[in-house]
Predict the structure.
Amino acid sequence: MVHFERFVLDNGLRVLVHEDPATPMAVVNILYDVGARDEDPEKTGFAHLFEHLMFGGSVNIPAYDEPLQRVGGENNAFTTNDITNYYIQVPAVNLETAFWLESDRMLSLAFSEKSLDVQRNVVIEEFKQRYLNQPYGDAWLQVRPLAYQAHPYRWATIGREIDHIARATMADVKAFFNAFYHPANAVMVVAGDVSVASVHALAEKWFGPIPPGEEHSRKLPAEPPQEQPRSKTVHADVPVDAIYKTWHMSGRDDQRYYAADLISDILSRGTSSRLYRRLVKEQALFSEVNAYVMGSLDPGLFVVEGKLSKGVSMEAAEAAIDEEVERLVTEVVPGQEFTKVKNKVESTLVFSEMNLLDKAMNLAWFELLGNAGAINEEKERYNAVTLENVREESARLFRPGNATTLYYKAK
Amino acid sequence: MLNRKQAPENNPLKPIKLLKPTSGKLKGGARLYIINGADADVIRIEFIFPRLPWDSAHRLTHTALTGMLLEGTTSRTAVDIAETIDFYGAFLNAESGADHSVVTLHSLSRHLVHTLPVVKDVLSASIFPEKELEIYQRNSRQRLQVNLEKNDFRARRAFNSAVFGSDSAHGYAAEPADFDHIHQDVLLAKYPQQFRSGNCLIVVSGNVGEDTVKLIEELFGSGDWLGDGESGSADVPEPLKEPGSIPSPEGSIAETHHVEMPGSVQSAIRLGKLMVTRDHPDYPALQVLNTVLGGYFGSRLMANIREDKGYTYGIGSGLHSLKGDGIFFIATEVGVDVSEKALQEIYHELIRLQDEPIPEEELQLVRNYMLGSFLGSLENVFSHADKLKTLLLDSLDYTYYDRYFETVRTVSAERLQELAREYLANGFYEVTAG
């Protein structure tokens, strides 16, 4: 159970406070409601590049990291297709430094040309390091535009191509800031050895004076239902063949998500799971194979990906995956197995509450979904899934026409 | 009017309090440490086994012993083991590191009565079935083949081999074909030496009730676990090497190695050398020096090579204490066209530490950062157990942390400059892969 208090400043900033006196630390987590899905299709990768620029100095404070480190704090951030999330971990006695730093960069950035020049290079090196210079690193750059044809999930957070990052201008940076970086487009969570009253006072002091900014309405093209299977074959310098198979599923805040997530657990959670037991151990078709869901806000993907054992044909590997997903449509999952995956969900939720930063991030995420209190309803939502829901959801997911497959072949 | 240019006050940190364990020795010789203190119904139990001495004839045996530990016992198949652990929502892992094998169970406390006997079983009655061994060999080989395509993996291997020699636990770099030479009979022979109770540290943390302690004592202290009777070779400490007694490259600052990886768009760089271990009086001060150089986001390497030049997504340095040897290294991946320039800047930063005292403002920042970071690393009872493990594995006691805090607070810029001259002037190995 994660308890919290919630209030909203006049400028629209939502603030959540979770008191946890067991730690001497405080976490300040700020989630901005902007991600790669909000990008111009000709300027992809920008939300993530912008995240880097948020560390390049703000209107009144020339350097962001240094004053925080000076008071014993650390910080980082990440960008997804849906959100950009910034967090600080600081000894609670120095909480105010976090408010000072975060409020100034919400007020305005320094917009330094040097920072833009350098971070363009840094992000291009990140693109190379994570997506181009790794075996299979570009697989998702290939799968996304195949599985999505209309919705902006068709490009990855890093961007469609390096050139989009190289071409980013200061005018783009300013426009992006004005559109998305303002109080009403953010959720702030303060957690740890803090009190609701002191957080309220600090929030009013530092964030209260920030002007509300202009409301941004989101009009993203919906992905039309997929009726025909799609596939693509690529050849690369990798030691073994791999397969990536995806099916369109619901968005995160849909009860269908919970059924799909349990289906992925039945297929591949732990070494007792179906894919591991049958496809890796018994049939030795794969050296590794995994099923998982993308918990994206808009309708996401259900994924099965695996590396084939040497000598196994792509056809045999794919047939085995198809057989396993088909089994979920035609056969009822045994009760013992269903209890097992629900037990695992429960213990995972308990363990996740051991970590202060995780709690803060999750509160922000559920607030974005519409109700921070839902953080305490996850167990019930998983428990509400019935065996019949699993079968129904499997039937909706694993229609052949709903599948997109990337065959990633060793040269 | 709010003055946004003025930083809020920098308040001194509260004293850092570490949770300390209760400890004892179980019948059979295992040592038990318990750190109790969690609101939630969670528990973590780690079984730590110092690895057997390096065996040139069976190089992958230690890795395979641990990797195969959950694959079957006299009374449970791999499937049985997996089913029980998963059914009770637990997590069981066996991992082999440079100096230890560690078997870790995360479980809800109330299910321990079902999950812990499985651990006892794998530690005392594993049989390493042939069929599972074949699968393990094939999949490990394939995983290695994939890793061999990664520049940072290749640089790390080549570096370790250069520093430690390839015929050693710390320097060995497996080739895919090496997995063919793992044999069941060797595993069965080594198993009772590696996983016997006399070679085990048990570290328990979380919500530890009396029932739990009793259950642990029953299972692991009843004398029916592989006992002390075997050869006991792991208890014999390996001869400690004095820093510098291992041949360091002479003449120039560094001995260079290159791993050719055609088609790379980045090069991985790894530059480093042997260093003292955690029990050495200079170690805490070297940690401060390491932090200044490359141990945090604002470090000199990050500030120069990422934030000023934009050559890389990330660069860092580290100081690790292994059994017998410490190791210091700098690691990064940079665009192939700027690889030379990045190396020049790395050497420039090493030399700057020797030539100039660290400015007081920078040093003060690093002191605060390190203490805050230590405080932040103590977020729950498991992290207190991690602090204990660091001590146990290096045969230190809690006064080590007192010395560490004292050094972080007080070590002078002059002393750090002396240390840079003593430890960072030469003896490096420079490895590039790209």
Remarks:
- Residues 113-132 of chain A form the longest helix (20 residues).
- The mean pLDDT of chain A is 96.
- Chain A is about 40% helix and 20% strand.
- The longest strand of chain A covers residues 25-32.
